[in-house]
Design goal:
Layout lengths: L1 E10 L4 E10 L2 E7 L5 E14 L1 E6 L9 H11 L2 E6 L2 E2 L2 E2 L3 H14 L3 E6 L10 H6 L4 E5 L13 H14 L2 E5 L3 H14 L5 H6 L2 H18 L2 E4 L5 H12 L4 E6 H5 L2 H8 L12 H13 L4 E3 L28 H11 L5 H14 L17 E10 L19 E11 L2 E4 L24
Parallel strand pairs: 1-4, 5-6, 6-9, 9-10, 10-11, 11-12, 12-13, 13-14
Antiparallel strand pairs: 1-2, 2-3, 4-15, 7-8, 15-16, 16-17
Helix pairs in contact: 4-7, 7-8
């Protein structure tokens, strides 16, 4: 007699199978099949709803604004959105995760709050160079994050080319990925100065100050550095089609390069959404014109997108409402809407739902070296499962009980899919209405090569 049986339309990285089922024992998937199902102590029949792998969001910022969100809320939004693991970035307000002790401290604190599982990125302080990278990897980091642009000299520093190469060499020895924020510092600063001098302060200022070339110049540096050092290089967000072509070119040459499409680059555009939303749609790199959005979808359909993320950060509205565009904080919340947005767009474009299993679960798990435990639906992996049902509804973060932000760039958007349930390691953590998981239910997950137990 098995522990749990889920029935519905099972979505894997290769197939979409109606009238299928998944068997769960001891919190892990033990069987997947169609036709007559085995017996189980508990049976949940979801009819024709989708049974999907729980999403792994590779880019979340739970602590960018002190006293605002933290893991207590980011993981609540995640559970409600069908996201069962988040990978949290190391640039916390007042706390750079650049040493093994800092990573362990963050893991302890997050473990007390998290409602879903979490992984943690590490980084460096420029003055330290790469010397802490081995110890941070041993402490359980899922990867190392760097930036070619200096958002803040302490909290979010620029790593210059020579130091970035030294860091890539150190990361390569750990077997983990180096993820990089891809904007050329010198070009962006020159364009910001030009925009300011011209007196442009409205929504147009952001895109004008960070042109597509700033992204692709930085990506060329990142991938060339990877080629020279043997490091696995991941660009953590790309808003322009040319960037995906660059990544694919390096992959064709045999280098381990990858690239991430944030959900906002696939859904929103500059001329309609940024013009309407202003500071709420200020994100680095910027949201681009609709023609660029369509270019990203062409690359996604061709298999040139590695993962899809949210780059989630729940700034308070006071940080996103300045009429001068460049004075607003950069970033937006998205965890609660990730799966509904992506599924809706896939079906409207006639693309296979297997893209969701691959880009939201299988590939992120591979990126972080977690495939033995997490990822797409497969026997032996954790029973992290999302149930999505067909439903026409309007997203409204203002009235959501699961998002602390109280606003979203997706407010008012019509969606075709809603999350009906989220299962974490075989336990129901969201029932379609309420988040059932208590703080502390989530676990710290890390690559098996680290010494920290997951």
């Amino acid at each position: 007699m098995h522990d749990l049986l889920l029935k519905g339309t099972v979505v894997t990285t290769q197939t979409v199978s109606p009238a299928a089922w998944i068997v769960i024992d001891d919190g892990r998937i033990s069987q997947i099949g169609q036709g007559p199902a085995p017996d189980a102590r508990e049976i949940q029949d979801y009819g024709d709803a989708l049974i999907l792998p729980g999403a792994i969001d590779p880019q979340v910022h739970s602590r960018s604004q002190k006293g605002q969100e933290d893991f207590i809320w980011s993981t609540r939004a995640a559970a409600a959105g069908g996201v069962t693991t988040i990978a949290d970035m190391p640039y916390d307000d007042g706390f750079l995760v650049s040493t093994a002790e800092n990573l362990r401290q963050k893991a302890r604190e997050a473990g007390e709050q998290a409602r879903v599982d979490f992984a943690l990125w590490g980084t460096i302080a420029p003055d330290d160079g790469p010397r802490h990278i081995p110890a941070v990897a041993e402490a359980g980091a899922c990867g190392f994050k760097f930036s070619t642009f200096g958002t803040d000299p302490v909290r979010f520093p620029r790593i210059p080319p020579d130091l970035l190469a030294s860091c890539f060499e150190a990361v390569a020895k750990t077997g983990l990925i180096a993820g990089v924020h891809n904007e050329d510092d010198e070009m962006v600063r020159a364009r910001i100065a030009a925009v300011t001098s011209a007196g442009v302060t409205d929504w147009r200022a952001h895109g004008m100050s960070r042109p597509p070339l700033a992204e692709t110049l930085a990506m060329a540096q990142i991938y060339e550095t990877a080629a020279a050092t043997g490091c696995s290089a991941h660009v953590v967000h790309c808003s322009v089609a040319r960037g995906y072509a660059l990544c694919e070119a390096y992959r064709q040459q045999g280098f381990d390069t990858s690239v991430e499409a944030c959900i906002h680059y696939l859904i929103l555009d500059e001329e309609h959404d940024v013009a309407r939303l202003g500071g709420r749609a200020k994100i680095n790199p910027p949201i681009r014109p609709r023609a660029e959005v369509e270019g990203l979808w062409a690359h996604l359909a061709a298999g040139n997108v590695t993962v899809v993320s949210t780059d989630h950060v729940s700034w308070s509205l006071s940080r996103k409402s300045d009429p001068e565009m460049l004075k607003n904080a950069s970033g937006a919340p998205g965890l609660e809407a990730l799966y509904p947005l992506f599924l809706t767009e896939l079906t409207r474009r006639g693309l296979s739902l297997s893209h969701a299993a691959r880009l939201l679960a299988e590939n992120p798990a591979r990126l972080f070296r977690l495939s033995a435990q997490k990822g797409g639906l497969a026997p032996g992996r954790d029973a992290d499962i999302t149930i999505a049902r067909r439903e026409n509804w309007i997203y409204d973060a203002t009235h959501s009980r699961h998002s602390i932000a109280g606003w979203s760039a997706y407010d008012g958007r019509a969606l075709d899919w809603r999350i009906a349930a989220t299962w974490l390691r075989g336990k129901l953590v969201f029932d379609g209405h309420d988040v059932l998981a208590e703080p502390g239910a989530g676990r710290f997950v890390c690559p098996p090569s680290s010494r920290t137990s997951s």
